[in-house]
Amino acid sequence: MNREKYSSAEDDIIAGLGFPRTLITGETLRSNVAGGTDFAAFSPIATMDTIRDKLLEWTKELYEEIQDKNRFKNRPIPAFSPMKLYKLLDLNMIGTALYKEGSLSRQTRLEMQGLDLNTEIERKQAEMQQYKQKGIEEAPSLPFSSPKIGGAGGTEE
Predict the structure, then answer these.
(1) Are 73 and 65 in contact (CB under 8 A)?
(2) 34's torsion region: left (phi>0), alpha (psi -120 to 50) or beta?
(3) What end-to-end distance do the CA atoms of the chain give, in Å?
(4) Cβ-based neighbour number of residue 20 at 10 Å
(5) pTM over 0.70
């Protein structure tokens, strides 16, 4: 099948949703140059903010109707947290700095990277057992740190 017959419809859909082509394909419409997505997120953020605002308006009306019909004294106030969109490299640098200064938990740090704390703990436990079985020394926690750091109680052995 020839995909060219769909390209016009795809372009219309992409433009209608307000998502820059660079976020979807990594390229602009007229060039095959990848990158340049730093500023391309502004339009999708505005689109998502508009959608969120409309959803909040609808939710507030729904809550008001529920309150009136059930004679509730109070009603919740729906709200969204601000969207936090960062380049992956920037997010990693922010997470690393906050974790090193002790302001960020391991769970939050892993969630920033799209990982699950429990999964990582299970994997580390399995790896440690394999290391012991095969007589391999554990990898250090940080580059150039002693393998003995991080022992029981967080002290050197």
Answers:
(1) no
(2) beta
(3) 66
(4) 19
(5) no
Query: What distances in angstroms separate CA 83 from CA 22, 80, 86, 92, 150, one per listed residue?
Result: 20, 8, 10, 17, 36
The single-letter code of the amino acid at 18 is G
Whether the CA torsion 106, 108, 113, 114 is positive or negative: it is positive
**CA atoms of 7 and 13, how far apart (whole Å):** 10
pLDDT tens for residues 35-88? Answer: 444 555 556 777 788 889 999 999 999 999 999 999 999 999 999 887 766 677
Alpha-helical (H) ranges within 71-137 are: 88-100, 106-112, 117-134
For residue 62, give the amino acid letter: L
Amino acid type, 130: Q
Q: What is the largest CA-CA distance in the chain?
A: 70
**Amino acid making up residue 101:** E
Residue 109 near residue 94, CB atoms below 8 Å: no
Asked whether the beta carbons of 41 and 88 are under 8 A apart, the reply is: no
Short-list 16, 8, 13, CA closest to 43: 16
